[in-house]
Design a protein that fits this description.
Elements lengths: L1 H11 L8 H8 L2 H9 L14 H6 L4 H13 L14 H7 L3 H9 L14 H7 L3 H9 L14 H4 L4 H9 L14 H7 L3 H9 L14 H13 L2 H7 L12 H14 L12
Helix pairs in contact: 2-3, 6-7, 6-8, 8-9, 9-11, 12-13, 12-14, 13-16, 14-15
Length: 280
Amino acid sequence: MATKSWWRRLLDRPWVQGNPLLHVAVMAGRQRAFDWLVRVGADPHVRDARGLSIVHTAALHPRLADAQPFLQRALDAGLPVDDRDADGYTALHFAVFHDRSDVVAWLLDHGASLRARTTVGTTALRHAIRWRRSNAARSLLEAGAYVDERDFDGETPLLEATVNPALAGLLLEFGADVAAINHHGDNLLHLAGSRCNPEMVRWALLKGVPSHGMNATGKTPLQTVQAQISALYGGFDGLLAAFAEPGEDEKSMTAGEAAGKWSLVLKLLGHQQFAHLAEG
C-alpha cells in the first residue's frame, strides 16, 4: 500500500511547467499514454499548478477531434462537466474564450450549464461578449443562453457589447432589450459614450435608445461624456487643443485621433459646439 501511495504521488506530481503527466498527455493528444497512466495509478482528478482539471485542459485543444476523447475520459472518470478552477471558470468558459463553437456544442450536449458563473459572476455568454467571440456567442444563444442575463452590476450582455456593434446586432437578433439599464441607471448610450465609441453611439441612436434618459447621478449620456472630457482634458478647450498633439508612436492612436473620436461622440449626442464635424 505504501509503495502504491508513493508511486501515485510520483505520477501526480507536477513535472512539465507545473503540469502532471496526465495533463501533459492530454495536451500532447496522446490517448494511449493517458490510458496507460490511469492504469498504473495516475489520478484522473489531479490538477495542474493553476488548479485546472483535465476537463479544462482538454477544452483548450484547437480541434474537437483532439479534445473529445479526453473530455469523454474525464467525464467517465467522474469529473463533472462543470468542474471549476479556483476562479470559478468551467471548461465552457475556456472553450468560449478560444471561440471554439464545436467544443462549446459538445460540452452543452453533455450537460454543461449555461448559467455557471465565475467567482465574479461571469457566465459563458458574458465571457464571449467581453472577449468578442462571436462564433461562441452565437452557439450559446442558439443553445438557450438568456440574452438579457445580468451581472453583479446589473449590466446585460448588450450593455457589455458597447465595444462591438456586430456583437450587439447578434444579441438584438436574439431579442436583447435595447432599452436595458444597469444598476447605476446607465443605458447603452451612457456606456458607449463614456467608452468613446462613436460607432456604437450611432448604432444605439438608430435603434432608438433614448438620448435624454438620466442615470442614477442625474446625468444624460451627453452630460456623462462631458464629465469624462473634463476629467481627461480639463474641458472642451483642452479637447480642441489635443487635435494637434502627436501620438507616442506610430502604432498607437494619436492624441488628435483620440480627441477626434471624443468630439464625434459629442456631435452624435447633440453637442452644438461640435455639430459641424463630419461623421467618418
